[in-house]
Specification:
heterodimer; A: about 110 residues; mainly alpha; 3 helices; B: about 500 residues; two-stranded antiparallel sheet; 22 helices; 2 strands
Chain lengths: ~110, ~500
């Protein structure tokens, strides 16, 4: 139970950072924290106590529980998606730095209303 | 088999275009438009299919797995409706970009991202699997983030960064919802989830549905989460603004909301009420913010928020008439809003400005563009012969049927305010009589492909009201009504 609560805490830490931080790089780091907390949560959901890896072998007894393989497969996809979003964010942040010479979003506000 | 081509074709197009488009001159323009045309043909074939075959739902299992496992692709009437909407608008926008994108460098990159966005949207529409929806949603979103920043100016980059932040919050919430759904039901297949939780009224399901609704509302720019849209949509190149406002917010937002509320999760009056009030809020705030804009594209973007409110209002009523009205308005809005964004692109192409006060004598220089803009404005304001009128009428009738007189009055008032705002556009933007020969000399009508797209969409605006006519009604709209309104039919036909 504690693990789930920790994952969700990490999620909300990331969300908090994403909404309140003023520096582009800190915003990107918050996004990475949020994304990874979700991946961790997905893996934890698939975990079974004393579970073994999900492959049928002759040496394994049939009574032993196996961990759920589906979340592991999905998390791989989710990590790749998170990586591509992060790369796009960093690329755009670098371009913004070239134009404005700053990472502070309080100084980058041409668009209003 | 026909289902898979909606994703395979555009993805293949992206691949070939990225390989060859850089080296062969004019390759991207021709090739991508051929792919888009094939997609339109396929959409009409699938419309023909669901009207002739006995079972109107087509299911395809990728890799031949049995149904709760593997990836399921589903085609029912709602899917066909959305596919038609996305691919027809995408086709006209693709033709328009042939001339418009000449002013940018490296147009092959633009076409690759554009086709990737269409692949993502088609994927969201046809997939019947929760995680697959998430993957395609991210494909469509990431390519739209990149397209908003395509001009690489100060404003574009800032708008794109805002859009990415909001978009990643929304996809984070959606992924959290998916994880919770999986841990609660141990399945990711939409039909299987619907079967498992049909009679379940537990609290955790309400939290999950709430997470999904917030995530999709951010994508649809419903009012508390709307502030990325007026920055992001005007910053993109005009064809992309047309795609984003016309199709993307509906596919990733409203279509998924409808699918989840009615087909997957058990019917829940509280959630419908939330949707209803969100709709009313969006309508009012969107139109009020639009009234005092002088930037043409920004004004159109605020009207998108307001019109999304109409669709949510119709859907939130939960009655059959309201649902048909909401979905029909979605179709109409995608046509006339992309038309209006294309006209704004034509003005920007000729005069290099988006400020309405600076235009003069546009109606004499560009008669065809002016004609399309007039048709689009009258449609969005809901003036009788045009398509916007019929869908708004359906929504208002549905409000009165379910005894929400106040909502009906608000809908009429917002319609009047929309008309006022577009009269301003026509007065200052197109029929401005201020004589400024320096401004207008050496200008002529935009190139033929741009005129072709705008005039075709304008003709669609005029004739689409025919879809409500009794016999033609059976072709699509009444099928959608039964698909959405009798929600549990969805899993029963798929799992049978």
């Amino acid at each position: 139970m504690l693990v789930y609560v920790l994952c969700l805490t990490m999620f909300f830490v990331g969300l908090y950072g994403l909404i309140t931080k003023k520096n582009l790089l800190k915003i990107i780091i918050s996004f990475i924290i949020m994304d990874n907390s979700l991946n961790l949560f997905f893996i934890v959901v698939g975990y079974r106590k004393d579970g073994i890896f999900p492959i049928f072998l002759k040496t394994h007894s049939t009574t032993q529980p196996m961990v759920d393989p589906v979340p592991q497969a999905l998390v791989l996809t989710s990590i790749v998606i998170g990586l591509s979003v992060t790369i796009l964010m960093v690329a755009i942040a670098l371009r913004i730095y070239e134009k404005h010479k700053t990472f502070d979003i309080t100084e980058i506000k041409n668009l209003k209303g | 088999m026909i289902i898979t081509f909606f994703v395979i074709l555009p993805l293949l197009g992206v691949f070939i275009n990225s390989l060859l488009g850089r080296f062969v001159k004019n390759f991207s323009e021709i090739f991508i438009n051929i792919v888009n045309f094939l997609l339109v043909v396929l959409s009409f074939v699938s419309l023909f299919y669901i009207n002739t075959s006995e079972n109107i739902t087509l299911v395809y299992q990728v890799g031949g797995w049995v149904i709760p496992y593997g990836i399921t692709l589903v085609m029912d009437s709602l899917t066909v409706f959305m596919l038609l909407l996305v691919n027809v608008v995408g086709f006209f926008v693709g033709i328009y970009s042939i001339s418009y994108m000449k002013s940018y460098t490296e147009s092959w990159g633009f076409y690759s991202l554009f086709e990737l966005m269409i692949a993502g949207m088609n994927g969201v529409i046809i997939s019947g699997d929760l995680f697959n929806i998430f993957v395609f949603l991210e494909i469509a979103s990431i390519s739209s983030y990149a397209l908003v920043a395509y001009g690489i100016g100060k404003d574009e980059l800032e708008a794109s960064f805002k859009y990415i932040i909001l978009g990643s919050i929304s996809t984070g919430l959606i992924l959290l919802g998916i994880v919770l759904t999986y841990s609660y039901t141990s399945t990711l297949n939409l039909a299987d989830i619907a079967k498992t939780i049909e009679f379940d009224r537990s609290f955790i399901l309400k939290i999950i549905l709430f997470l999904f609704i917030i995530g999709f509302s951010v994508k649809a720019a419903v009012v508390p989460f709307h502030w990325w849209l007026p920055d992001a949509h005007p910053s993109a190149p005009a064809p992309i603004s047309a795609m984003l406002s016309g199709v993307l917010i509906k596919t990733l937002g409203i279509y998924l909301i409808v699918r989840f509320i009615f087909n997957v999760f058990p019917k829940n009056q509280e959630i419908l009420n939330i949707i209803f009030y969100l709709g009313i809020l969006s309508m009012i705030i969107g139109v009020i913010l639009a009234l005092y804009q002088w930037d043409y594209k920004r004004l159109l973007a605020y009207h998108s928020i307001s019109q999304v409110g109409y669709m949510l209002l119709g859907i939130g009523l939960g009655s059959p008439t309201g649902i048909v009205g909401g979905m029909f308005h979605m179709l109409n809005h995608s046509i006339f809003k992309s038309l209006l964004f294309l006209t704004s692109g034509a003005l920007e192409y000729n005069f290099y400005t988006r400020d309405l006060k600076k235009y003069c004598c546009v109606n004499k220089i560009m008669p065809n563009t002016t004609f399309s803009a007039v048709v689009g404005s009258l449609s969005i304001a809901g003036v009788p012969p045009f398509n916007g009128f019929w869908s708004k009428l359906l929504i208002i009738v549905a409000c009165i049927e379910t005894k929400n007189i106040l909502a009906a009055i608000v809908a009429v008032a917002v319609s009047v305010l929309t008309l006022a705002s577009f009269l301003k556009v026509l007065k200052y933007g197109f029929y401005s009589i201020e004589d400024n020969t320096k401004f207008s000399e050496n200008k002529k009508e935009v190139p033929f492909p741009m005129q072709f797209s705008m005039l075709s969409l304008a003709i669609l605006c005029i004739i689409l009201g025919i879809l409500l006519y009794p016999n033609i009604n059976d072709l699509l709209l009444s099928k959608i009504k039964s698909t959405i309104y009798e929600g549990s039919l969805y899993y029963k036909t798929i799992l049978k």
